[in-house]
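Pasting as-is:
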Amino acid sequence: PDAVNPHVRFGGRGVRNKSGLSYLYTYLTSPVTATCNHRCSLLVVYHVVVVKLLCLYTLFNCIMIYHGYGAVNGYQRSQLFILFLTSCGRGRGYGKPAEMNSYNFFTFLPACGPKVEASTIPSMALHAKFIGCFLVAVLALNICGCANMHLWPPGLTAEQRRQLRAMPLAVKPWPDGPAKGRILHTTHYRIYTTIDNPLQQRLIARVLEADYARFLRLVPNAAPKLPMVGYVFRNRRQWALYTHKVMGPQASIYLHIETGGYEGNGVFATYRSNVAEVLSVVAHEAWHQFSFLTLKNHLPAWLDEGLATQCEAMQWHNGYPVFIPWLNVPRWEMLRQAVRYRQLLPLPVLAGTQAGNVVQHKLTYVHAYYAEVWSLLLFIEHSRYKPALMRLLAMARKGQLNSLLAGTGLTAKEENNLTLRWNHVAGEIYLQHFFRNRPGLKHHYVVFIDHLVQHWPPERPKSAPPTATLSQGQSP
């Protein structure tokens, strides 16, 4: 909506993941270990179907035992479990008997026979063992998920982690800030954070400096006012408190962001939803900050968000991050789902869509939008259209893009406020002028997407140099 703070850019990764299972999922689907086309889908099936069914079956057993019907076995038990699942799906699975209707699981329990004390049921030992083993397995997964984080991020050896922890970094107390608040001072950034892990602090600092080097290759001669300021909170609660304080009545709009952050007036704010994602989100938001501080003309949402997603995927070589945008596992999986269910927007519609509106829709729509702008900018950056992208960014830095909007009736105030009308008109005009006037864009992009979603890992773009040839901190 136009009422949103005009100088705010959104960014996010989607669903919040905090459990050990999510760490295991992230680890298994990382570019280091994702070796087959269907690994991601199989893990989703495992997580959604197997784990949730086991959880529900455990709850079902506990309820049966509690109500004295733990001795029910065989076909009758399977029927009751199916009825239990149906009741849960309708939102009436458990509660006071008076609240249940005639189709509820609890209505049929008395028909199973007389109640029996659990201690007198021989088969209850088996059910108790099953429940115990399952709870131990879930606990082990969470422990393994947390324990394996000492191996994060992939690509860093134990010696490199030790060296990073000992890396000189100016860390000072945060006056009047939250408990354990610190200020990280790097060459180009000043980061206010409540993350107290020394290794994570240094990884954030190193990613931001590598990000800055990448930005300068996209926008040569850019000169933002230094230091650039950002906030990286330890948890969502701290980030939400900051958002309420800074955004005031409009905070509820930004709190729709599940995992991610935003940039407003040249300052980005995000939080550590889990350890594996914090670096990607910080790198994403840093682009929004850089574009706000260095470009005299704003970029429409499809372009600004698309460029930000190119910073999310990275590997570590010799202790430094290397950006590998084509190996962005979450975006790739979201794109594949969007293609499968025909959720992709036509290019003119995508060009006129405002990210501030997107984050208020269903999560599937948010995922499809960000996956599509990721794939579009991945295509543009690694094809014959990259020179056009460089010209567009150069004109934005010099304040020359406004000349393309002559005759549209747009005012400078509308551009400064990033209104829906400005985003719609400018987004389509910039796409048409720099890219769609060139023959074959739509056809080449469709072919690119079809090939991209069919193969994992995606092929390295021909324009991207091998990672072994990259200097420290450089990205393709």
